[in-house]
Amino acid sequence: MSRMPRQAITLSRYEVMVLLGGLIILGCVRLVGMFLVPLTDTTEARYAEIARKMVETQDWITPQFNYQIPFWGKPPLHTWLSALGMELFGVNAFGARILIFTCAIVLLFLLFRWVRQNLGSGAGLCVVSVLSSSILFFGASAFVMTDLVLVFGTTLVMMSLWQAMYAEAPRSRAAWPAFVGLAIGLLAKGPVALVLCVIPIALWALLSGQARSLLRVRWGTGALLTLLLALPWYVLAELKTPGFLNYFLVGEHFERFTVPDWQGDLYGSGHERPKGAIWADWTLAFLPWSLFLIPLILKPSRLKSAFVSDRSGWLLYLLCWSLSPMILFTLSANILAAYTLPSLPAASILIVCLYSVIWSGADQSIIRVCFAGGLLGILAVWTIMVTLAHVQPDALKLRSAKVLVSTLGQIDEDATLYYLGRRSYSGEFYTHGHAQVIPDLSQLNDHIQALAVPLHNEASELEKIAGDLERIGQFGRHVLFYRSLPASEVKQ
Question: Are 177 and 160 a contacting pair, CB within 8 Å?
Fold first, then answer.
């Protein structure tokens, strides 16, 4: 049986150079953004601060939401990467992001190698170009959060299982990387990684009629390998902070997605959204390439013919993989756009394959021009956004305390920064954990020198602020107030 339809994509030398040039520029823009774009509240700064605390306390088992308060919301693999990056490159945004970015580069390389092995280097280069330039993947490729590491694991699972099912040797060891990938997913985000892989595999086996191919996989030894890699941390985490498993498995993996406006979140709050919103999220996440689905939809007969003529089940495999997150989260109330990320590698391959099968001959010239236009357009968008983030951060309304903390340091490097109302994770990160919170102005005392007030509260609270607090200026969504104190009065 053929593994997949052999519709090769032949690129001219000029086209190869254009795609390689685009990828290099994309990588450089993302690398520069790691230096220039500050850590922003809430998600990225929160995870970066958790990693910074890991470096400071040297507690590599239990991530800490605050000092001595465990963070049970996610496993620690992404935190380990950010913490290790800060150990190597210093406690800064680059250190927190660099190993996440490295993960993205390795993922793109593995995806290219897999597609090249099966469809040729032209298809591999097109797929990597599509994935790396899609909005969500580009942003997540150096964003301090769990999802990119999860996608690394699930993609490794899906690629390796396909290779194992069609390997020449019976019961091939080609699937072993899949079980390593599953362990990565379990340590990155938990059992949801397993579900995201089981859904497409089961659906593909049912629809393709090729379930017997799964018997070529060494499931027993593979499962043992996964347990050996992932289980020790789960055991150590529960022993160190009892109650972790109940909260993480029941709360985070069941109640979060089945209970509307879930109130059990220890580290924030659930946000109810309309059921089915995950599909709109996917459409936005895969821009500009989700727009390329429109011509496919307008040719239903050709689209159907492509799937029917594919005896290998390759296109169906990619389709099931692409749809997996949406199938899982369609009926969920508490979702984020980042939940669509695991589908993007498969969607990138699928869209390239379908265009190569459905369009041929003279039609391809138009497709190539549109493809180049999409790539150049998104390149320009990301270049402008990274430039604005550095030159005029207020234009993007970034929620970051970097400039505020830097300004306060120039005024008084010893002053402790207090936030009114709620904590700022970026404020904590850039003050190395020294930023504090007062719930309201009744807690304001004469020893507080620096106070960050939410912009929307400034007018109503201004009269209550002590007269000797000077308004320094607005920084993002906060206004900084400061007063100097005699050395004898500064609180130690």
Answer: yes
